[in-house]
Amino acid sequence: MTAELALLGTTGAVIAGGVVESLVHRRTLKQIPIRIHVNGTRGKSSVARLIAAGLRAGGIRTCCKTTGTLPRMILPDGTEYPVFRPSRANVIEQIRIVRTAVELECQALVIECMALIPFLQWLCEDKLVRATHGVITNAREDHLDVMGPTERDVAKALAGMVPVGTKLYTAERDHLDVFQAAADDRGTETIPVTESDVATITPLDLAGFCYVEHAENVALALKVCQDLGVDRGVALRGMWESPPDPGAMLAYEMDFFHRQINFVNGFAANDPESTQRIWEMALERYPGVDRRIAIFNCRLDRPDRSDQLGRVVASWPPADKYLLIGTGTYIFARAATSAGMDPMKLVFAEDQPVDQVFEIIVELSERCSLVMGMANIAGIGLDLVRHFANRSIRRELK
Q1: Hey, how many other C-beta atoms are within 10 angstroms of the C-beta on 205?
Q2: Read out DSSP for 138-191?
Q3: Who contacts 276 (Cβ-Cβ below 8 Å, separation ≥6)?
Q4: Which of 15, 28, 57, 95 is buried deepest, with most CB atoms within 10 A?
Q5: Parallel, antiparallel, or unpaired for β 251-256 and 259-265?
């Protein structure tokens, strides 16, 4: 009986401690009047950065936390620091981010959703952020092993973070009805970014960015900023001045012993639709090259992504060679050859270090070559970007 009482006492103490911590966190959240929770398949890190930059330019003291290529905390003066993680990523770190924003006396916190599992998406919103403004960029085929099996299931999973009784902004069109249903259920106003909204983003607006930014992202971020009272021109200028995410799409051009190698960082695009679009943009930017090399950074822990891309890549405008790096490259190769790709075009560099991958790229290149990285930025993808960035001239891809 004594042991049972001790167990009951311990359990009660743990529950009471959790309740107290939850109440303290809610009081902390209330000290930040504007809380913007950003989610979506593609572009959420970029949109979070754009919104924060626009609000800062409008005189609103803002912190921003992104979990894109590298987790970053962006302070009210625009400086950035890596987010310290004693182990692997955990949604509970959002509590620490909120506390930091309060310590910095922020009026606004723009925070990227970390969760993939549908239940955790709602938990992050309802327990950790309680957004005054929810933002969902889009819903595309990615992380199907967790949120799938279909694109519509992805939309339903993302709808888990629709806040209660506030506003939801989204650039999604194909599955807007899913978000609308969730918003109606929670008494939240849905504010869609329409095609006409995107059309107001002119080539001159996009020319102000030193990297490739998508009109949908800019239109979505501007709508949030304008609804919070920041003038469009002021917000846009702030966005131009803000540094991009480390995974932003940039081109690096280098002359390597009389070989012109044009490397495009498309690693952060990892769903088939976005990846194909960026590949086509790169081909348009470098139409006269002698050799086109598509690099796919595979991950054994993301087999669905490798299989997805492998199944569709044969239908894209072709490359001359497909260099497979990372781990689990056989998954991509199997899917691609089954879809009709010539297996002689595949070059394997499984688990090779970045300097060896660079040597293979040089061997595959001709007098003038386009080289583009795709699929995953993590691991050797980011290493390869840095390798080219340290040895070449950075160019905006337009």
Answers
A1: 18
A2: ---S--HHHH-SSHHHHHHHHGGGPPSSSEEEE---TTHHHHHHHHHHTT-EEE
A3: 312, 316
A4: 57
A5: antiparallel
| Helix residue spans in the chain (DSSP H) | 2-29, 44-57, 93-103, 118-123, 144-147, 151-158, 176-185, 195-199, 203-207, 215-227, 232-241, 272-285, 303-313, 329-338, 354-364, 380-389
Nearest to 38 by CA among 217, 306, 253, 291: 217
Query: What local confidence, expressed as pLDDT, does residue 358 receive?
Result: 95
Collapsing DSSP to helix, strand or coil, 276 comes out as helix
Q: How far apart are CA 176 and CA 256, in angstroms?
A: 48
pTM, full prediction: 0.80
pLDDT, average across residues 210-228: 93
pLDDT band of residue 147 (cuts 50, 70, 90) is confident
**What does the block give as tokens for 333?**
């190769």
Place of tokens 């095609």: 195
How many percent of the chain have pLDDT more than 70? 92
Task: Give the single-character DSSP code of 212.
Answer: B
Answer with the residue of higher pLDDT: 284 or 271. 284
Length of the chain: 398
Q: Please give the domain boundaries of the chain with CATH numbers for all domains.
A: 26-241 (3.40.1190.10), 250-393 (3.90.190.20)
For strands 167-170 and 189-192, give the pairing: parallel
| Phi, psi (degrees; rounded to nearest 5) at 307 | -65, -45
Give tens-digit pLDDT for 310-323. Answer: 999 999 999 999 99
